[in-house]
Structure to design on (284 residues):
């Protein structure tokens, strides 16, 4: 299976990061968003991240320009017809994803591989909306995508060996470190990370320590780059809440149940960095 053209569905935080790393790695990359406004926003995010990489000495200016030339954008799903691999990073809503995959299945060639960047939804169910369950896998990136080395390569019970290997090799070709896992909600990382983040909220609720001390404890005591409450603000409280609900529904284990404080913060619109306030306040 040779992959030359990559389609990326969704140009949000994850989709734009994924498109950036694909274009940097030499793939012709086409990004699809649902409106011109979202296309513009996503492409702007990629441009500024590529600029930052040059500024930080991670990328030569000529390589930034070459990556820019390999990137194109569209609002039409039909424009992904000639892609060898499509990576989907749209809203975490199973019905919307299934509808999109069913349409894409009719548009793309029979050999094209579909990958979802979902963090917790069931990939098997998405693949059932297509006629290519054997050419369907998960490719789960981490935020910020251009910086984080890890990618989870997720097999469903229907994914063929050839597809799993092609997706693994593709992740490596992006300069990432892939790990293999199965289609269980949360895969490896979120299965371990989400209960930890929820426990940090419980610790704050129980008055175990201040927000600063809880974060400092994990940063200086365990060498984490960000304490759990800062990380929650970074990932998004709404996103974490949604992931926890899906995982709780899958496993029915208390450790995945979102604590009341997290729910109330989401209800109050305190989503973290994206809304200007979460456990901390952000300027602007
Ligand atoms: N392109 C390439 N490299 C870049 C870059 C860009 N656009 N922007 C920054 N970098 C590089 C920098 O050069 C630097 O490299 P160096 O360490 O070799 O010097 C490195 O990335 C860190 O950048 P900064 O110095 O600007 O920033 P910080 O040191 O403050 O680190 C951080 C920021 C990388 C976000 C760090 O705080 C961190 O790792 N936090 C934890 C993030 C994390 O856990 N993410 C996973 C979340 S869970 C998830 O995504 C799963 C989902 O399903 C919920």
């Amino acid at each position: 299976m040779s992959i030359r053209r990559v389609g990326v569905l969704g140009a949000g935080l994850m989709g734009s990061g994924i498109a950036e790393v694909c274009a940097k790695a030499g793939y012709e990359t086409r990004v699809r968003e649902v409106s011109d406004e979202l296309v513009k926003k996503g492409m702007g995010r990629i441009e500024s991240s590529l600029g930052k990489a040059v500024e930080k000495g991670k990328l030569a200016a000529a390589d930034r320009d070459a990556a820019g030339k390999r990137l194109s954008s569209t609002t039409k799903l039909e424009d992904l017809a000639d892609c060898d691999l499509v990576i989907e990073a749209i809203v975490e809503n199973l019905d919307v994803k299934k509808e999109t995959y069913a349409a894409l299945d009719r548009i793309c060639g029979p050999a094209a591989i579909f990958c979802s960047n979902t963090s917790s939804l069931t990939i098997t169910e998405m693949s059932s909306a297509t006629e290519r369950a054997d050419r369907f896998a998960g490719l789960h990136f981490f935020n910020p995508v251009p910086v984080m080395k890890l990618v989870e390569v997720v097999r469903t019970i229907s994914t063929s060996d050839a597809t799993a290997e092609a997706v693994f090799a593709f992740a490596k070709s992006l300069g990432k470190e892939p790990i293999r896992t199965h289609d269980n909600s949360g895969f490896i990382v979120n299965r371990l990370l989400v209960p930890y983040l929820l426990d940090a909220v419980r610790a704050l609720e129980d008055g175990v320590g201040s927000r600063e001390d809880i974060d400092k404890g994990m940063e200086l005591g365990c060498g984490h780059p960000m304490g759990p409450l800062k990380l929650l603000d970074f990932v998004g409280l709404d996103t974490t809440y949604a992931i926890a609900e899906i995982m709780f529904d899958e496993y029915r284990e208390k450790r995945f149940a979102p604590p009341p404080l997290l729910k109330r913060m989401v209800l109050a619109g305190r989503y973290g960095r994206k809304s200007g306030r979460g456990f901390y306040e952000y300027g602007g």
User: Anything to note?
Assistant: The first strand starts at residue 5 and ends at 9.
